[in-house]
């Protein structure tokens, strides 16, 4: 598990006078699911394109299996780009069979696998339709199927569930989890933090082309305050070295605990300061909380778009 399948070291990417990535280094270990996270424009897609040889890096090392990626090794890679694209005027089953053969499967095996996958994602009755007759979400399921055909060693998934309702999002997350169980290494780019908490072993938060945080999900959560108090109250919350006040609304506040102090001591501090406490809940800081602390409000509109709000 500790062996690196993807190795990026001191990667820099310039476009003219604009430095998009600066001194980026990280590994993706064989067999893990890795969350590659960041706000829009942080450099995630640029990094993946450089890793896959689409962009030539200004400097640094980007390796898959110990060497630069080449199309000759593409059958062991499954890449789902954010910009989807398949042959829209061809029947679904023909498209999937064609891509299966490109990935080293024979025609019969590719067709059988495709029909089984279509049944799993509730598209078994759509196999003979032209792709452009399907809805956007249905087309996205086909694209994911093409991506995971023939059990690739490495999966790179850019916003794999964008635009899906909760039922279909859970279905696709189950499919991705099955790929990991089968031995695939998965790199996920997503703004859905609950997906990261469910699936990812480690994460990297990229901000302005550099590493903001890197480690296990727990390590990143603990770095930004492992515990948070959700407080319903009236009165004035006193300052304290034991917490930071991260949110204040009418009769509601969130306190990020900055020390290992017992929660009961925080409650006692508040009561001794004359605060009337109507609700006191201690929870672990979520990755959503971390994401908002790192990137501020710049992604709020995008998060709402993803959730359909």
TrEMBL record:
Presence of keyword ATP-binding: yes
GO MF annotations, alphabetized: ATP binding; ATP hydrolysis activity
Residue span(s) of domain ABC transporter: 6-233
InterPro entries tied to this protein: AAA+_ATPase, ABC_transporter-like_ATP-bd, ABC_transporter-like_CS, ABC_transporter_ATP-binding, DrrA1/2-like_C, P-loop_NTPase
Location in the cell: Cell membrane
BP terms from Gene Ontology: response to antibiotic
Protein origin, superkingdom: Bacteria
GO CC, any one term: plasma membrane
Membrane topology: Peripheral membrane protein
Keywords: Antibiotic resistance, ATP-binding, Nucleotide-binding, Transport
Record's keyword annotation contains ATP-binding: yes
A Pfam family per the record: DrrA1-3_C
SMART domains assigned to the protein according to its UniProt record, in alphabetical order: AAA (SM00382)
UniProt family annotation: Belongs to the ABC transporter superfamily.
Protein's name according to its UniProt entry: ATP-binding cassette domain-containing protein
């Amino acid at each position: 598990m500790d062996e690196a399948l993807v190795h990026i070291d001191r990667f820099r990417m310039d476009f003219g006078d604009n430095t998009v990535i600066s001194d980026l280094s990280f590994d993706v270990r064989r067999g893990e699911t890795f969350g590659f996270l960041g706000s829009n424009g942080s450099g995630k897609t640029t990094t993946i394109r450089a890793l896959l040889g689409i962009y030539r890096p200004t400097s640094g090392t980007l390796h898959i299996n110990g060497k630069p990626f080449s199309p000759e090794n593409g059958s062991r890679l499954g890449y789902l780009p954010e910009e989807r694209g398949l042959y829209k005027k061809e029947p679904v089953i023909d498209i999937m069979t064609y891509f299966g053969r490109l990935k080293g499967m024979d025609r019969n095996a590719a067709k059988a696998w495709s029909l089984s996958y279509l049944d799993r994602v509730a598209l078994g009755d759509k196999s003979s339709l032209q792709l452009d007759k399907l809805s956007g979400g249905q087309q996205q399921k086909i694209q994911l199927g093409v991506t995971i055909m023939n059990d690739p060693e490495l999966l790179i998934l850019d916003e794999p569930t964008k635009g899906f309702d909760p039922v279909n999002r859970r279905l696709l997350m189950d499919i991705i989890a099955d790929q990991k169980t089968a031995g695939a290494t998965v790199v996920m780019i997503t703004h859905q933090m609950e997906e990261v908490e469910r699936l990812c072993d480690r994460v990297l938060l990229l901000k302005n082309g550099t590493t903001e945080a890197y480690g296990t999900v727990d390590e990143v959560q603990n770095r930004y305050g492992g515990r948070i108090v959700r407080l319903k109250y009236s009165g004035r919350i006193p300052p304290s070295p034991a917490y930071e006040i991260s949110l204040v609304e009418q009769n509601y506040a969130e306190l990020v605990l900055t020390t290992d102090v017992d929660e009961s001591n925080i409650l006692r501090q508040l009561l001794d300061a004359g605060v009337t406490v109507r609700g006191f809940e201690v929870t672990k800081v979520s990755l959503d909380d971390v994401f908002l602390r790192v990137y501020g409000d710049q992604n709020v509109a995008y998060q709402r778009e993803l959730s359909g709000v």
